[in-house]
Write a structure and sequence with these properties.
seven-stranded mixed beta sheet; two-stranded antiparallel sheet; globular
Amino acid sequence: MSRRLPLLATALAVGGLVLPGASGAASASPALDRTTTATSGHRGATDIAVSFQVRNVNRSKLPCHADGKTYTVNGHLVAPRGSLSHGVRMDAVTLYLHGLGVGQFFWRFRNVPGYDHAAAQARAGHASVVIDRLGYDLSGKPYGKKICLGARADIAHQIITDLRTGHYSIGSRPAVPRFAKVTRRSLLRRPDLPDRGLLLR
């Protein structure tokens, strides 16, 4: 757990937050790697752009307003090198969701050696999907007051379903991987901890 704290500090240092009501719901991130085309091998990992068509709707039990429109959520699939050539049915993938003021770069920070969590997971044999959540960086940007926590939960569920069924886009590949199991990982604020850090859950 402690190994992730330097990553948190670095990511928060480069992340900015736009208040609700602005034209976008989130942040601008300077000096980020924004490669969104072609598959590349990165230290034992295959890193390829993915995109999901989602509806900004709220079917959760948390009352809040969403605009109901369709948007594109962009991100990357990072997997062990060579694993995507084995077929379109894969065992498992982890979907990583970032918090406020950051973006997918929180999990895929490539500007400093040793801080690319997704690539490290790929070298350990695990596949990851990291995304810019709706309103952030490379993904669609609804008006700030037209996206809410309940809708974010709904969108995460839509993406998990797409990963299981293969209903998403992946670079220029005709075969889209489908995953038997999708695990979600996000950030949980624990103000009771001495470092007041953010933990995976």
